[in-house]
Amino acid sequence: MQEESTILTGSNAPQATIQMTPAPSATQAIAPTQCPICGQMNPPGEMYCIECGFLLTSEIPAEAPTAEGVFPKLRDASGREFLLKAGENLIGRDPSSDVLLNDGTVSRRHARIVIEGNTAYLEDLGSTNGTRLNGQSVSPGQRVPLPQQAELQLGSVTLTLELPEGFETPVVAEEVAPPLAYLVNPQDPSQRYPLYARPLKIGRRTDNDIVIPDPYVSGSHATIEIVGNEVRITDLGSTNGTFIGEVRLTPNLPAPVEPGAILTLGKSQFVVEWASAPTEEPTPSDTSHSSDSPDVQGNPDVEVQSGE
User: Fold this and answer.
1) pTM higher than 0.85 for the full model?
2) Which of 48, 154, 265, 289 is a plausible cystine mate for 293, CB 3.0–4.6 Å?
3) Which of 221, 155, 224 is nearest to 193 (CA)?
4) Of 1-15, 119-133, 282-296, which one has max mean pLDDT?
5) Are the C-beta atoms of residues 268 and 248 closer than 8 Å to each other?
6) DSSP secondary-structure letter at 176?
7) SS3 sequence, 125-180?
8) Beta bridge partner(s), residue 4
């Protein structure tokens, strides 16, 4: 708003009006920043979007999806989402990463996901603790096609891939990521179903991952998954229930399956057979040399054995 100031130059002189603009305030508020990728409003001072991790000071890639579009994404255990753009998406601790993971077991340049057409590919970049797809190690430099709901483990961080409708699910991905265990019917060896580190639906209908031809099994009966070294099964409110031994499970409450336990669904019984021994826990990606090393001492971000 402008102020007016009147100056008198003499008794007979006309009045002159001079408009003066007030000086700008010395204190200016820093406004929140809206992410151009996902539309999230970020608090003042944030460098990265708190929702999708996009570097707010960088230019928007020409291929970047809009907030209204349908796009591939990664989701971590806390529910945080990382949107993936067409082309290369770098994953790691490096601040320039498209998927920034601030975890000591993740290398600076750990892996990358490449989106080409309607197919997604994963490649390990020689990380210290390695990359696993559905529980199976991915060799450095090997380009692996990714299926829908693929579980990626980078160090101790687990991410789940979500692909839009229309993306291909390459059959070769199952060959790269063999089963971690099997659900086996001891009375009928032909009923041997592979288990992976992702939820698998069990039921009588053909749209389930594991189809059991038992009239006492509900159309959508239960889900089963491998979490770390543990098998978990969840009854989905089936008519005849799901049992571990003699105990009927509470619907919609995951229950661990102890080694050698008998699972009963309808009138069919199963046991879990592991494909191999459980893997070891990952070690921190950042290790230290002796105290006389100037490059490591006092700098926790130096990665010693990255293989990069």
Assistant:
1) no
2) 289
3) 224
4) 119-133
5) no
6) H
7) CCCCCCEEECCEEECECCEEECCCCCEEEECCEEEEEECCCCCCCCCHHHHHCCCC
8) 19
